[in-house]
């Protein structure tokens, strides 16, 4: 069943409490949307709502982290990463605090909310920060695993979640035990399609369509954008010789940039980056993905272009 990655946030926080982890959540008046309200309902002493004050949210979370708590922040991605970037940099990252920045509603699949609410720069903003780890899960179960990994690993994390229900890629028993995680979810030999988040399901569909044409596409889930799973990425690039990165984020500074930087240094090969190059607009999620060439058909078209077919 399709479920949004944001839907994993609140329930996973409850699981962590049951596992004995001293979790708290600080939200900026969006607990219903981010689902941290589930933690607030079950454990009101573990939840703080600061109102529409994202900078204060990071300050409060930092103070709680200094008392030994494992602290998660909510809000929408465009506000929870951008509006409070200086506080994340100067308070959380410089001091290497145990704060997990976990906003929801990232990317253009926020849809009708339009360009003001469609975070397309957040991965770039977070991956540039020392000490910050960046995870972009591709389905509900991956989001649950990412949140658990962040909770059990000391220091700052950014876990990017979305509003749109996504098809299941991983089973309920999926877990991640390393910060640097990438996974080959479909083997191929002609091109490596490296995707994250929303785009993984579309990349898998594109690979099916390409197979009907005789093109063998390998699909790699780049859940960890910082640090990168260099071994998996380099092995796939060496196998196919051609890489296409696909992300619901700006092509400037995002996952595609991270992969391109790695390959430029350690395995130069042909790389094409598919993503956003400007702001979004209002529309439903499917319409927007199709309009910007980020659905399966758009990925197939870019593969044809890259392979010269």
TrEMBL record:
Keyword set includes NAD: no
InterPro entries linked to this entry: PDH/Transketolase, THDP-binding, Transketo_C/PFOR_II, Transketolase-like_Pyr-bd, Transketolase_BS, Transketolase_C
Keyword Transferase in annotation: yes
Gene3D superfamilies xref list: 3.40.50.920, 3.40.50.970
A Pfam family reported for this protein in Swiss-Prot or TrEMBL: Transket_pyr
Keywords: Thiamine pyrophosphate, Transferase
Positions of the Transketolase-like pyrimidine-binding domain: 3-169
Cofactors named for this entry: thiamine diphosphate
Source domain of life: Bacteria
PROSITE patterns the record matches: TRANSKETOLASE_2
SUPFAM superfamilies given in the database record: Thiamin diphosphate-binding fold (THDP-binding), TK C-terminal domain-like
Gene Ontology molecular function: magnesium ion binding; transferase activity
Homology family: Belongs to the transketolase family.
Protein's recorded name: Transketolase-like pyrimidine-binding domain-containing protein
